Fold each of these.
Amino acid sequence: MSEPIRVAVLGASGRMGATTVRAVQEAEGVELVAALDAGDDLRAVTDAGAHVAVDFTVPSVTEEHVHRLVDAGVHAVVGTTGWDDVSLGRVRDHLTRAPGVGVVVAPNFALGAVLSMAFARQAARWFESVEVVELHHPDKVDAPSGTARHTAQGIARARAAAGLGPVPDATTQSLDGARGADVDGVRVHAVRLRGLVAHEEILLGNPGEMLTIRHDSFDRVSFMPGVLLAVRRVADRPGLTVGLEDLLDLGA
Ligand SMILES: NC(=O)C1=CN([C@@H]2O[C@H](COP(=O)(O)OP(=O)(O)OC[C@H]3O[C@@H](n4cnc5c(N)ncnc54)[C@H](OP(=O)(O)O)[C@@H]3O)[C@@H](O)[C@H]2O)C=CC1
Ligand SMILES: O=C(O)C1=N[C@H](C(=O)O)C[C@H](O)C1
């Protein structure tokens, strides 16, 4: 039998970190060797001999964590949001100088969420209108969600590839924010409501019809199969992987 994958969790006392700690402790073929939170020294990851570190911290520190992990030759599985093309580009560049090290950055590890984004990309070219609504618990620090950004970017790419023009919108006067945020030409709306966990609706409209693609995470355990999949696969994927879709063979 092969040795278990030695896993460190960063942000271990947080909502996602604590769920990940439990999932790693209960899963086959993986072993929790370090659990770090704010104020802990990242060197504990290498001291514990971790092969993979899972980061569920905060947008302001996650990129620094990844660079330090890459320098230490530790693979990284990152669920923390706040990434953009520039920060991802810096990690991609860094990884060219760290052959063999893999980093997976995924805005959403829930299998249903990854599938709904893929379905939205597939549907996008057939619809004139599209808007994204994300709904989360009110303790979330960022808006719109990383998932909503990733969803909108994928839809925008699919629309551009199909030669579709801008989404129709005659609005010339509105209160600031009334039409949501513009992500690559796709409107994204963020709801924060006590009782919610993580939810997203993609609304696609044509004359006389609407397609709604909806995903609900009712519990953070929904993210764990995706996290464990990435932990098991990251060492076989040197370089940067963005999104879980490639690991599920769903394409960009
Ligand atoms: N990809 C995915 O599938 C998912 C991604 N997320 C994302 O994961 C991130 C975390 O979410 P959530 O767990 O709800 O947030 P929490 O606020 O519950 O957890 C974040 C944890 O990180 C800790 N932390 C802060 N700074 C550091 C640091 N420098 N080193 C180590 N730990 C640190 C915090 O400690 P303290 O509170 O003491 O500051 C806290 O315990 C968010 O960006 C969220 O959007 C969430 C769900 C799913
Ligand atoms: O903060 C959260 O809770 C979540 N964050 C991620 C995001 O911003 O997309 C993933 C999921 O939506 C839950």
Amino acid sequence: MTDVVVVGAGSAGCALAARLVDAGRSVLLLEAGTDHRRPEDFPATIREAATMGAAVPGHPANWDLTGELTDGVRWPVPRGKVLGGSSALNGTYFIRATREDCDGWAALGNDLWSADALRPAFDRSEADPLHGTTGPLPVSRVTDPHPITDAFTAACLELGFPAEPDKNADAPPGVGPVPLNVRDGVRVNAAMAYLSPRRDSPGLTVRGDSPVVRVLVEHGRAVGVRTADGTEHRAAEVVLSCGAVGTPHLLMLSGIGPADALRAVGVDVLADVPGVGADVTDHPDLYVTWSPTRRTPMPRGMLPLTTALNTPDHLEVMPWLKPFSKVMLSRSDGHALSGLAEVLRRPGATLRALRGTSPAKVWQQARTRDDLYLGVALQAEDSRGTVGLTSADPSVQPRIRYRYLSTATDRERMRRAVRLAADLLGTGAMAGLVQGRTDLPDDVLADDAALDRWTRAHLATAIHLSGSARMGPAGDPGAVVDQHLRVRGVEGLRVADTSVLPTVPTRGPAATAVAVGERAAELMTEL
Ligand SMILES: Cc1cc2nc3c(=O)[nH]c(=O)nc-3n(C[C@H](O)[C@H](O)[C@H](O)COP(=O)(O)OP(=O)(O)OC[C@H]3O[C@@H](n4cnc5c(N)ncnc54)[C@H](O)[C@@H]3O)c2cc1C
């Protein structure tokens, strides 16, 4: 019998499966999306790090979910549905959770997840001249001069923020280059890094196009999973790595979750675990758009996102070097137009993906698609969202409610973040480059109530979902897994992805997701 079935070949699932195989386990890795065996087999839209065409609604590698950012504001939520998961279509910002993040998780009763305990997992994942040097994921920083990054960096220094040349160094937060998982212009996703080199390993079986619809539980123990075609895959242990939406969804479809909510949609309850789908955290974000006084260089292949300002109060501001219209459209050597154009060839799929989202917000983004912008985000929100089951039919997406800015503290911090972005655009350092803000009038900026309304109209999400099956000690009623990632109430079942993080990292979670996979393998194979 197979030792372990891992469900979901995303950032965490790929790392976990690979390390389990290295430790001598037989692993069946089941992925809902398409399998691509070698790095060169991935389509250009996914490989090309300079663009994010697969994140556009309607792309086949995208789950095309919809979430409610706040009451009445619905927005597309892309997630990767392909080998590599969300790492195959993300922004390639690949940074460690901070020491404060990890030690915060440990302080909640998860000492196996302190910064010191997690460091070997990060080190093992990275090939970074500054940190772990021998791992499978390349980490690099772009330090080439560019008028926008240079002016933005000078603006941050002008406002008194320190330089932060290595954002993984546990130094005080400031402005500096972001670590990126890019090599030779290619977005190196977790499947390329961890699975491709092991595809001939007898211990590893990878199956794409295999959505799992249920965890099979007998006498309180997980014994395998069932895929949508009805096939049962048995294994000694089951690990869910379906991501922060897919994992709570699959748990609930399998009868593991808040009992009343499961019964309400006709699912028989196997284990009443109230924390499944609760305590979701992410990074609410938005864009402050601006027009330049002159054309800035945008050569093909230029990465859109190379620098970030992080502040001690957990705000993040990032200058994008290209407008959305260029980031979402890729034109690759030897290929026809891809990305947006590829999607526009399937208008039906795109329209279906956008159905139910707020038309005014979609229009607002379309209207400003050629502007430049500063991305502004809250990195440690107080608000909590939910992922809830609305149907026992696995093909119906769960309801994602972010409940963004539902606390006064978050609203106050978001105002501060927007004003910080405006201040940066107004510095002497940026004066020669910035003609003006294009969509944020002074009177709105000056008035709290008006700015809150503006924020609501411009709100978006960084798609960094975490915490929907979070870990915690025995006495924690909201915990879904213990710190060994074992699901409460069911033997032989674990979760390994960003669902387990008690809070979203205050940096992008992609590197942490991989580290969760690495750490899960350690915990599963230690004697
Ligand atoms: C568009 C976008 C841009 C982003 N940009 C950044 C960035 O620049 N930096 C950063 O740090 N983070 C970024 N993120 C977030 C980051 O990529 C994710 O947090 C991280 O990849 C999540 O890893 P994971 O393993 O938890 O889940 P995922 O990587 O999403 O993997 C889950 C996998 O499970 C599969 N799956 C789900 N359900 C099932 C099922 N029932 N059966 C079988 N398979 C299933 C999915 O298809 C997927 O392959 C971005 C995310 C998106 C979507």
Amino acid sequence: MRGPLQGRALSTSTSTQRSNNSATPEPVPKSKTKRRRGPFVYSIGAVTGLTTAWYAFASGSKDESLNDTRFTAFDVVSNEPVSPTAFVLTIRSRDSALAKNSAKLKAAWEHGLWSVEFKQPQLQIARHYTPLPPLEGEDGTEGQLRFLVRKMQGGEMSNYLSRMHVGDQVWLRGPHHGFDIPKRLGDAREIVFVAGGTGIAPALQMVHKMLNASVNGAEDFKPSIRILWANRRSVDCVARDEFRSKRGENHGTQSVFLRQILDMKRRHGDQFIIDYFVDDEKKFIGIKDIEAALRSASATKTTWTLQPPNKSCRWHSDKLLAASMDEDDGHTPDAACACPQGRAGRNIVCVSGPDGFIEAFAGPKRWTGGRELQGLVQGALGTIKQQSRGAVDDWLVLKL
Ligand SMILES: Cc1cc2nc3c(=O)[nH]c(=O)nc-3n(C[C@H](O)[C@H](O)[C@H](O)COP(=O)(O)OP(=O)(O)OC[C@H]3O[C@@H](n4cnc5c(N)ncnc54)[C@H](O)[C@@H]3O)c2cc1C
């Protein structure tokens, strides 16, 4: 079921996972594949023929590093349960590609939001997954990647990944850079995430990018990041008990994912807040919760007033955002801000999670000419924008 309005509350229950998946036979170049919603089946015969042809062609290639046209091999380092339905899969680059991969991963972490595709070789399908940030003490260039994966009932890729053991081989394509959050934030200071399930992964990427001085520069430039995190079951609310009881020092028995959230909280304090919502406990994210998050964020005032966004600004116009897709930001990294001179930028609300979740909170994305565009802001955030009479005009809504 999609996540409809339940009174003024929204359920996180959805039938499909996050959008933009591609079911892609190996030889199809990235530029020719559509990022698809939901499952898609290819003729196995056609796929086998094409795959054979591709391998014959590709066997001459020596570059085995991560790239966005061809799948490359990584080795599974660990597969650790986080809850009955979620696990953290850790993989590592092959030594032969380590130097090149390290440089590519460094660039991806510097960009901020990014994902890769995994391939299921028997079925020739591919799905996007979002790398969790490096742990404390790592700089992200060790060639290791970690993913929080939810095992979907009947889900082809997530169940395939859940069966991976140490030493197994997986195939990756990417990295795919998403929205350029620092550019879009500009001189604004607040980021709110409305995240469903594994949709917390991009939020943690933002914590890594925006709150780590070593990644982002000056201390006084750090924004606040508040995450409204919805899960179906209380067992998936990682770190909630620890935050409530202020426990969290016994790292020995904690999952790597729990440890990561606790470390982030310890390092970033009130600049990193998670509010938990659980279907099981009938605690859904409602319009009032989002309004409260936006209000409390706006209350931590900056000493400057933001200029109103120019309608033709590449980074800050709502209209131009509605007609673009997340990967576009990486194509024009040097485009100038066209807002009036002075302090310019927009606070940011990101909605990340399954399709139905995004639709309920921010409205559907829109397919046009093979591109999945952001579309207008609708759903709960559309209602808030309509009712607020300008009070949330400095917030830009991104659908991840
Ligand atoms: C940018 C991006 C990043 C993502 N990051 C992550 C991440 O970090 N972690 C994560 O876990 N997920 C992530 N996802 C979602 C992920 O890509 C997959 O969609 C998810 O793992 C489910 O894939 P699957 O192959 O297991 O399920 P699928 O086989 O695609 O099935 C999905 C659901 O649909 C149902 N279904 C299957 N076939 C049908 C059918 N014919 N008709 C109706 N329903 C059907 C299944 O039972 C299942 O519940 C991300 C998605 C995107 C777009």
Amino acid sequence: MTAAVGGEEALIAGFLPALPRGAHTVVGPGDDCAVVRGADVVTTDMLVESSHFWLDVSSPYEIGARAAAQNLADVAAMGAQPTSLVCALSLPPGMQADWVNEFARGLGERCEKAGAGVVGGDITSGPVLTVSITALGSLEGRAPVLRSGARAGHAVAVSGTLGLSAAGLEVAAQLRGLPRPERARVEDELRRAATGSPAAAAAHCLGIFKAPTPNLSAGVAAAQAGASAMMDVSDGLLRDVGRIARASGVAIDLDQRAWGATPGGQGVPGKLAQPTGPELPDAGSQPSGGAPPSGNGLPGVATLLRRCAQWLGVPAGQVEARVRQWMLTGGEDHALLATFPTPQVAAAAGFQVIGGCAQAGAPEVTVLGQAVGNVVQKTGWDHLQR
Ligand SMILES: Nc1ncnc2c1ncn2[C@@H]1O[C@H](COP(=O)(O)OP(=O)(O)O)[C@@H](O)[C@H]1O
Ligand SMILES: Cc1ncc(C[n+]2csc(CCOP(=O)(O)OP(=O)(O)O)c2C)c(N)n1
Ligand SMILES: [Mg+2]
């Protein structure tokens, strides 16, 4: 049944039961406004078909989950506890009511897990599917963790994964380029892939692209531990590190821990993504089939990305450079990026240290002391400059 058949009211009545009420909700959906407690921070992010997702790749459940995750990560990045969210949907002609119900289920489940209610929204029609979310959160009496609090001597650290969504986007693009029967065969291969195989890595990255799983509780943990600055990585690590550096008036140098290698270790020289520039050490030569990335931090992420690169057919000599590019410039895993007074404080909050802050001097962001232009061509995503 298309969403149009029962009209707006029937559609809304159909999916409302899938939406969590939330512990901070005084008045939920159904009136002109919701009334919520705990609205110290507010953020909004839109997702637009073909700019953020493809309807032939992501399920409605995944698009709902992703819309929630992207916005909840912004709340967490202030050191706030997400409390509530409103969701506006613009539906293209012919959309099925079941599609909207599944979207609501994905959105609702992620919000419920995060402790947030879905307290209202809007439905309209338009040429492409558009989702617009506004999320609110409570600081629970703490000061917000801004982008501007990093100081010279502070450690730079992340919680979560880097580069998986960017690699997953390439998997999605490769699938979309296949003729129909071949695509079905490859999708089946991804579904059945054996643990530790390149296909399993590709399937995992594709899953993160479709519905990222940021570690939302790390936001409050970082704030409680004394994080000095924080944001979520949506546009790419180097680009977003630059935003903290500029807001705080510090210089930030990242080291090889950012792409899963050991600092000062005997890295095997790897090729850069560009033909020119100095060589950086790679993350060593963990073979595919090594330990799974879960619980293994950024080195585990690099291992997974190497396997995904293999599945994508990246030539062996370019794999290390591609893994580095994904981890340094890929956004949308929505990892939390924070600075802490010391590396020990960062580690105690569950963050992985990837660099440090120094007195400002140009350039603001360097990688092992090198200008980022020597390391990658683009630092991240910009909707208006692609
Ligand atoms: N249309 C807009 N009107 C007002 N402020 C905006 C608009 N678009 C973006 N901003 C603000 O600019 C800043 C940067 O936006 P953005 O890069 O989207 O941040 P984020 O990655 O946290 O979503 C944010 O503080 C955001 O609120
Ligand atoms: C179909 C498709 N193409 C490309 C991308 C890649 N992409 C889209 S937006 C984006 C960066 C995040 O931007 P935005 O949604 O504006 O988040 P914000 O910075 O506002 O948090 C990236 C890497 C994608 N997710 N989907
Ligand atoms: Mg935004």
